[in-house]
Amino acid sequence: MKINKKITSFDLCLISLFTAIIAVFAQVKIPFPIVPLTMQTFAVPLTGAVLGARKGLIATTVYILLGATGVPIFQGMTGGLGIIAGPTGGFILAFPVFAFIVGLTFEKKSRHLIFLGLVAGMVWLFAFGGVIWPVFVVGTTIQTAFIKFVLPFLPGDFLKITMVFLIAPELKKIISKAKSHSR
Questions:
Q1: Over the stretch 63-82, which tens digit does the pLDDT of each residue have?
Q2: Cα separation of 108 and 53, whole Å?
Q3: Which domains does the chain have, with CATH numbers?
Q4: What is the mean predicted confidence (pLDDT) over 93-120?
Q5: CA torsion angle for 155, 161, 163, 169 (degrees, to 10)?
Q6: DSSP helix/strand/coil, 119
Q7: Cβ atoms < 10 Å from Cβ of 84
Q8: Is the pTM of this model over 0.85?
Q9: CB count, 10 Å around CB of 40?
Q10: Hey, is 37 helix, strand or coil?
């Protein structure tokens, strides 16, 4: 089986578009103590689901690199390495793997596997960004990190991945149709 690794100009446009979508959705937030609830955790798995593992990884990495250089695209129109190095930076750094995991399962086209991939991606996000990162960066305990950085967000994030599960297949069809017309 030959794998086409070529990225077309259409793909570059999609990667750019989804990088921008993540940045815009980062600004949609509901204030919570410590970690605000943002729509990034909807946009990131949607990116992986629609673009696939490789291009989803690229789009989320571009998002991080832009923010790291100071472009104000992180939550609250912020940017810079200080945000990434802070207590919530682990969530941002977990985005590429999250998108990659989701993208891999969407490429398999099995509805059960897709949903498991969304859950696995969310588990990765919470394990790394919500527990491991705060333990090492903030110096908190695993239990405290789980209570502060994970538990309050489980219901909302489960709803977000359910929305991705429902929306992404239709969005992929629309994009596939647009791609076939762009040739």
A1: 999 999 999 999 889 999 99
A2: 11
A3: 9-176 (1.10.1760.20)
A4: 93
A5: -170
A6: helix
A7: 17
A8: yes
A9: 29
A10: strand
